[in-house]
Amino acid sequence: MKTGSFKFHVLYGLFGLLMGGTLARIGFADYDQVHRMFIFADMRLLFTFGGAVLFAGAVFAVLRGHLPYHNKTLQPGTVPGSMLFGAGWAICGACPSIVFVQLGQGRLPALATLLGILFGVVLHKWAHARFFRWDTGTCGV
Amino acid sequence: MELVTGYWPWWIGALALGGVTIGFTLLIGRPLGVSGSWSKVIGWREERKLAKNAAAIQPGSEAAHDAFLAATLAEFGEMGLADVDDAGDTNTKAPAGAAKAQTIPWTAHLVFLFCMFLGGFLATYLAGNFQLHFELSALHTRFAGGQWQSWAALLFGGMMVGFGTQMAGGCTSGHGLSGCSRLATASLIATMSFFGTAVAVSFFVEVLAR
């Protein structure tokens, strides 16, 4: 399928719907639930996430050799960038996908998070072009 | 009833989230990753510039040939030019698999992000739980020290999320779900780093909120 086609846009959108719906129903967009996961007060979300990785991992192991190229490489920004993200996630209870789900659920303060992420990405684009210039292998080429 | 209105038990959530990851990877033909979509949507102008440049230097075009010759001359001098014609067309051949790798346009990424918002709304509305919230949670307001401080913390935290995920080359979906399920070393290290830091900061939040 051509990636520029209308059909591809619909398929991509369908996965957005499924992902948004799933994240909402497992409670990943609920600050209190996420906070309780991080302080190990409630293991439900941790099991959900771990279970999803195991399930996908098992299927991917079977389909080995038929999967799209994975471009995740260890680069100088992997650890500091992840630590910065982790701190931000604990503060606002949102990762780049969750913020949309929170807005969809009517959580208005997520507008501030959305604006913050927007600033952060733009700031990184500037800093990367000016100072880093390393290959981050970011998702979705 | 719990399944309709409440949060799903872990095993249903795991099957659904894992299923979305698998379906996305197989049908879209890319590993799942949301921070990449952010980057593409915000950098939509870069995509146009790249497409324009790519069209200008199509392999085999005269402009490309001249540019390569000039670059070779600058880098290696006259000596380098001696090998250029011998190399023939072999340099312009794309590596195996490259022909299949079409770029996903930024518009598709935008549709994906918007549909995530729509999915969140539909799932909540259909479960009968939709309502407007002016605070993220009572716990968050308590930890930040007030309502507007809570919004400020979200803005600041959001910036850390945006900058951090771009710097790390992935987020919960790209490194956590997609990368870890394929045992990519970088993703395993990234996931341990962001999860570990989030745990440490959350315990700090817990102390502040007390």
SSE map:
The complex is a heterodimer of chains A (141) and B (210).
Chain A: H1 6-26, H2 31-38, H3 44-62, H4 78-92, H5 98-104, H6 110-132
Helix pairs in contact in A: 1-5, 5-6
Chain B: H1 2-5, H2 10-28, H3 34-42, H4 44-56, H5 62-76, H6 78-87, H7 106-126, H8 138-144, H9 147-168, H10 172-181, H11 185-209
Helix pairs in contact in B: 3-7, 5-6, 8-9, 8-11, 10-11
Write down the overall geometry of chain B: elongated
Name the assembly state: heterodimer
The topology string of helices and strands of chain B comes to HHHHHHHHHHH
Contiguous runs where pLDDT drops below 50 for at least 5 residues of chain B = 87-100
- The share of residues in helices of chain A is 55-70%
Q: Kindly estimate the percentage of residues of chain B that lie in beta strands according to DSSP.
A: under 5%
The overall pLDDT average of chain B reads 85
Low-pLDDT segments, ≥5 res of chain A: none
Largest sheet of chain A: none
- The residue-averaged pLDDT of chain A reads 92
- Total strands of chain B: the figure is 0
Shape of chain A: globular
Greatest interface: A-B, 114 and 124 residues
Question: What helical percentage do the residues of chain B reach?
Answer: over 70%
